[in-house]
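Students often ask why we bother encoding 3D structure as a string. The short answer is that it lets us treat folding as translation between two languages. Here is a chain of 171 residues written in the first language.
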Amino acid sequence: MNIEAILYTLSSWFLIPVLAAIVMAFLYALYHLGQFLTEVWQRRFGKNYCCHLAKLSEQKKLDSEELELLILQELEGLKVTARVAPLLGLVATMIPMGPALAGVSAGEMSVVGEQVGMAFAAVIVALMAASVAFVILTVKRRWRLSSLLNIEKQQQQVNSEHAVYLQRKSA
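And here it is in the second language, the structure alphabet:
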């Protein structure tokens, strides 16, 4: 068995896992789209909307660095999806091209159509997953960092009021 045959066999083994990963990325993006739209609704029409970071900050007495780490952890899956899904789409496009080109040389156009159709469908789904994840990531990052800034301002205000109180008490 020559090296080309080994590489072809190895690459064909990756097709099903890559397609499964693309479907999972798409479902993950759809799930987060639902969460995102719910948050948009709450921000627009919720009378008492309060970011979960503010609640966590009050309940667990987290400082801004710990809150920033929570933000990074929350957005990590979206970031990975936005960056990896296009790569998976490219892989899913390239793997069927070997059989498609072999079909062209053998004159089997039905094989070509099937392989190319699958390749393009996979890349479209992957790009849609990446696009949705990227938009949600961008907006949520802005929202979370804005909330973090507001929390830091509130903490500074409380600290300065406490310092003034202590100063008055000691005088």
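Translate back mentally: The chain has one domain: 3-170. Keep this in mind for the problem set.
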